[in-house]
Amino acid sequence: MGASADLTGPVTRVVTDPASPCSVVVPVRDDARELRGLLTCLAVQSVRPREVIVVDNASRDETAALARAAGCTVVREERPGILAASSAGYDAARGEIIVRCDADSRPPRHWLAGHLAAHRDTPGTAGAQAGRHGRLLRPRAVVAVTGPGRFALPEPLGLLASLLYVGGYLIAAGAALGHVPLFGTTMSIRRSWWRSVRADLPLGEEPGGGPDVHDDMLLSFSVRHDERVLLRRSVGVGMSPRALRGGTAARTRWRRAVRTLEIGWSRSTPWERWAARVAAAPADRLAGARARRDHRRDDHPAAGSS
């Protein structure tokens, strides 16, 4: 999957817009072949990004040269590991919405538009609502958006493998977290939120660039009980089936999962996370319903007048 990384051939440039609210971050290590295919997809997005930041995680191939040829901003991160690489990209991003994917992600044309719309149009992200006895009810703030991935395999194998792999991750990680987990293949976060939780990540606690973890799931542990992650099909992407490999790759994924849970649960246990979110649920539902009602009233002002 993906075109050759030979730089003697034409490289598709990604046109950016300095007024765009979104930055794209792609952490990469020795994956120029897949990166080239991703950049081709980013070049035809219906919404232009402010910037595309390729984090070169000490690559030894043509990753950095390819990214520069495509007009991307290249951030060199010598510390090994996806946690250090993705964090460096988020730190460098200037857009308020930071959209993250992998080199082997294959986003459709309206992918960026889908992420922006989910952050912009979701009812319940506005201010507080008055509840009973004058108590202030505030709907959970949407701090992140994520979506599904679809393996590039012959059908129906592609659909079945995607449902088992991605669906299994969403269910298992969701149970551990108490909410929808971030999926690094297609996700977006608010830059203001990233700045507020960055100190939670153990970047300097272990040798190198921090612990060997699944960075998306570890970041999910920073979502507070009064915040939420939206799961939207509109931001789904295609992806390489290499995640299905067994052997050493499977053992590495398992080791990272265990280490991620160890760190996350040392901060808050699953039952503590679930209890906090369940306690906030009634207020969240009421505030969200009122926000949606007000949203409809704003769209149709005559309906609320006599």
TrEMBL record:
Cytoplasm as UniProt keyword: no
SUPFAM superfamilies associated with the record: Nucleotide-diphospho-sugar transferases
Protein localization: Cell membrane
Span list, region Disordered: 284-306
Compositional bias of kind Basic and acidic residues: 296-306
Ranges of residues in domain Glycosyltransferase 2-like: 23-123
UniProt GO molecular function: glycosyltransferase activity
Keyword set includes Ribonucleoprotein: no
Pathway in which this enzyme or protein is active: Carotenoid biosynthesis; staphyloxanthin biosynthesis; staphyloxanthin from farnesyl diphosphate: step 4/5
GO CC terms, sorted: plasma membrane
UniProt entry keywords in alphabetical sequence: Cell membrane, Glycosyltransferase, Membrane, Transferase, Transmembrane, Transmembrane helix
Main subcellular location: membrane
Transmembrane segments: 157-183
Function: Catalyzes the glycosylation of 4,4'-diaponeurosporenoate, i.e. the esterification of glucose at the C1'' position with the carboxyl group of 4,4'-diaponeurosporenic acid, to form glycosyl-4,4'-diaponeurosporenoate. This is a step in the biosynthesis of staphyloxanthin, an orange pigment present in most staphylococci strains.
Similarity annotation: Belongs to the glycosyltransferase 2 family. CrtQ subfamily.
Name of the molecule in the record: 4,4'-diaponeurosporenoate glycosyltransferase
Gene source species: Brachybacterium nesterenkovii
Higher taxonomy: Bacteria, Bacillati, Actinomycetota, Actinomycetes, Micrococcales
